[in-house]
TrEMBL record:
The keyword Metal-binding applies. GO terms for molecular function: metal ion binding. It comes from Salipiger aestuarii. Required for the biogenesis of c-type cytochromes. Possible subunit of a heme lyase. Pfam families: CcmH. Keywords: Cytochrome c-type biogenesis, Heme, Iron, Membrane, Metal-binding, Signal, Transmembrane, Transmembrane helix. Residues 6-148 form the CcmH/CycL/Ccl2/NrfF N-terminal domain. It is a single-pass membrane protein. The chain crosses the membrane at residues 101-122. Residues 1-17 form the signal peptide. InterPro entries: C-type_cytochrome_biogenesis (IPR051263), CcmH/CycL/Ccl2/NrfF_N (IPR005616), CcmH/CycL/NrfF/Ccl2_sf (IPR038297). The lineage of its organism: Bacteria, Pseudomonadati, Pseudomonadota, Alphaproteobacteria, Rhodobacterales. This is Cytochrome c-type biogenesis protein.
Length: 152
């Protein structure tokens, strides 16, 4: 029974991040606030959205989202306000506009470059001549015989 309660508490942990005093009285506005906060990064936890984070900054961001919604801002205006205030890092899914396209394209471009470089290397290795065995000159063979005979 204890294990069941521990597992249940563990699974309910993220749901407890939004405090009861943060919840908006209008269910439609609260649903909008939850949807917006699912796409916003907690700046303390970094890879957790503000809806699931227990950090005090995440609480402040949740309250700010709800404040902007009750002020009459649209979803895009709320997100734009937070991006203007905290930078694009606050978004869990950054945009692909501006210089961000370079970050999005860097992985596939570097992979293609590495594949091309690997292909060139393999092709050059297949064209290379096999190393030939070195043949000793008659003088070197005589010297080698002398050295081997001296060691007996």
């Amino acid at each position: 029974m204890k294990r069941f309660l521990v597992i249940l508490l563990f699974l309910c942990g993220p749901a407890l991040a939004v405090q009861p005093d943060e919840v908006l009285p209008d269910p439609a506005q609260e649903a909008r606030a939850r949807e917006i906060s699912q796409g916003l990064r907690c700046l303390v936890c970094q890879n957790e959205n503000i809806d699931d984070s227990n950090a005090s900054l995440a609480r402040d961001l949740r309250l700010l989202v709800r404040e902007r919604i009750t002020a009459g801002d649209s979803d895009d205006e709320v997100v734009a306000y937070l991006v203007d205030r905290y930078g694009e890092f606050v978004l869990l899914r950054p945009t692909t506009s501006g210089w961000n396209w370079l970050l999005w394209a860097a992985g596939p471009l570097l992979f293609l470059f590495a594949m091309g470089l690997g292909g060139v290397y393999i092709r050059s290795r297949s064209r290379a001549e096999a190393p030939s065995e070195a043949v000793l000159s008659p003088e070197e063979q005589a010297r080698l015989r002398d050295i081997l005979d001296d060691n007996r």
